[in-house]
Give the backbone structure.
Amino acid sequence: MSTVATAHETAAHTHEEIPFLRKYIFSTDHKVIGIQFLFMSLFFLLVGGLLAMAMRWQLAFPANPNAGFEGRPLPGGGLLPETMVAGGVMLPEFYNALVTMHGTIMVFFAIMPLLIGVWANYLIPLQIGAPDMAFPRLNMASFWMAMPAGMMMLASFAVVGGAANAGWTAYAPLSVMPEYSGVHLGQQLWELSLVILGFSSLMGAVNYITTIVNMRAPGMTWFRLPLSTWALFITSILLLLAIPVLAGGLIMQFFDQTIGTGFFKPDDGGQPLLWQHLFWFFGHPEVYILILPAMGFVSDILANGARKPVFGYAAMVWAIVGIGFIGWIVWGHHMFMSGMNPMLGGFFMVTTLMIAVPSAIKTFNWLGTIWGGNIRFHTPFLHAISFVALFVIGGLSGVFVASAPVDIPLHDTYFVVAHIHYVLVGGSLFGIFGAITFWFPKMFGRMMNEPLGKIHWALTFVFFNLTFFPMHMLGSGGMMRRLYDPTQYPHIAQYQDTNIFITYSALLLFASQFIFMFNFFWSLFRGRKASENPWEANSLEWTAPSPPPHGNWGDRKLKVYRGPYEYSAPGASADYLLQTDPAQGVPAPASH
Amino acid sequence: MTIAAAAMDRGTSSFGVYNVKLGMWVFLLSEVMFFTGLIGTYIILRFANPEQFARPGEVLNVPLTAANTFFLICSSVTMVKAYAEIERGNQQGLKRYLVATALIGMLFVGIQGVEYWKLAHEGFVPVAALYKAVGRHAAEAGEAGAVGAAVLGGPLYGTTFYTMTGFHGAHVTIGVLCLWFTVYQAYRGRYSAQNVAGVEAMGLYWHFVDLVWIILFTIVYLI
């Protein structure tokens, strides 16, 4: 029964012309959905960056004549309504909205979809040897929930009262009391948008887990999976269990805002601290959701660039599992200053420091992977090795804030902003750039321009560090987060030159991304045609055409003989060995 | 058979559980986390403000809800019977028991709805500003709704009650809609002894909803 049905289905798809709408808009093909997420999230990455530029302008040039700072009008401020920018000067309420929306859009609509919506969808079936996801229609629904959620989030800028302005962490009571925040509908749209996006991610997670568990090709055992797939698998489990808690909290916040319940309002017996617990119980696994996939991509790309197996593959797998597991019991480290019992703070400090161990194992193993390798410094490799360096810096600053006593002066300062951007931009975003440049040929059948890619990488690397490294000093010096006008405090006004330096660096960082944008779109149409396996890699996606057809391999039967990292294997004819290559003369490694 | 199912046939599956069933189990795991968040919130708020919560039976109608719980458990039994019937290939039995499950589900939601209406009339509402719960005993003594009547519990009581039972009720309602869809599919002859996936997944969801209710009933009505 099964083979006849499959052949019939494949025939139907090749012989009939699928209408444009079903093929590109309402597609159930995981590759099309992954590309849809790519375009959507790159757009939101741009929007998030624009918001940050506006923030940086205000921080560098606040209008504070009493302290001797004349300020400069916000470029483009004339286009914005008086409720946001009045006479060229940004209003504090709008600054708070910018801070909130920059964080929200970047985390939920740029980085999360870029790591998971794009790559879980695109890579998982291809790397495990499946024709598509377990639930293709659910997959389509997942994208078509995420898109409107993003539109809703953007629309919240246009409503009366403006966009949500209680921070991306939306702490109560500010987030539930419009009489304090001045925002009514904006905050409610924020809550609803994230509930819908959460649902989209949840449906995705169900799909990814089922697919990886059930649909691996013959011979594709668990310990022959590429680390990208492993990372996406563990990330999906984190999503599955964390998002519902956020959804519950958001719904409660929504009820507090709309129908007058009192979950988080002290007047009615509610507890603002309850929101913090609900949010951060989700929020901490969330940050591992934001880094683990990138770690997986980095492993695949470094091995490929160095022409060497990943050092300690099994340890890498267990480190991913360990990070995912321990990540559930550290959330209190976001709440050290909430008044908790210091003993409890001690517990969270210990668990948080423990997470440094599997992260360090991964870091040393990445170094071990490239050590003595015959390195090809292609653009993906440059991004991947930058990930390692910058993630280490972010991790080190994390050790400081993980220590509860040290966090006392550092909490809610720019030190934390430095930390999060080193791991989110230095880590996740560089990982994303690595992934896009690496898998672009597979997705679109064309190579990206290599020189342009290297220039983009170099400029991004330099300007990123110039922008965010000084923030460590600002934070240690006492500059608080979410601060509209740093010059109002003498102890921060002395650092205003640093703030201006950071703003210029940030503007240059933003401008450098246009090189990537140009490269991306130019290569879509004019890039050199890509072969099946332009990077000479081993995993299954490189045995399919570039780009793969619907169903990925047609009627071809796949069988997997080895792991994904057999670069420079003794006895092999080339310095790479496909997972599907039986290669009789080359012994498979002893374990697994 | 779909591409996915065919692939599963020739692939390496870890648990030997087909896609739809595994997918439903994974989804139910996420639902566990959702209700845990809601129930956890209730427990925290109740321990912090015990004076805002009335004793069992003062405000809520325990006997009626206990009967409702029994009905829901019966519907789980009929659901099991439906699955057993289609495993044996008995289409008539499948349809009969699916319809029974759906009807009992609707009865459950109906009784809940009536309960909500009566409670709201007494002033037991989720909205803090309107909360005036006077309770069943006060009502029996003839003081229901009277201005200045004793207020049993506080706003958090209504808030947490309606949030927890409301979301559960929403899940039951969605389950009932899915059950009717399953009935429709059954009448179209979509299920057989070889093709039980849809019924089994429906059953898993329905049992989960029942299990959550048993926990909720215990925590909210009896403790």
Remarks:
- Chain B has a mean pLDDT of 89.
- The two ends of chain B are 49 Å apart (CA to CA).
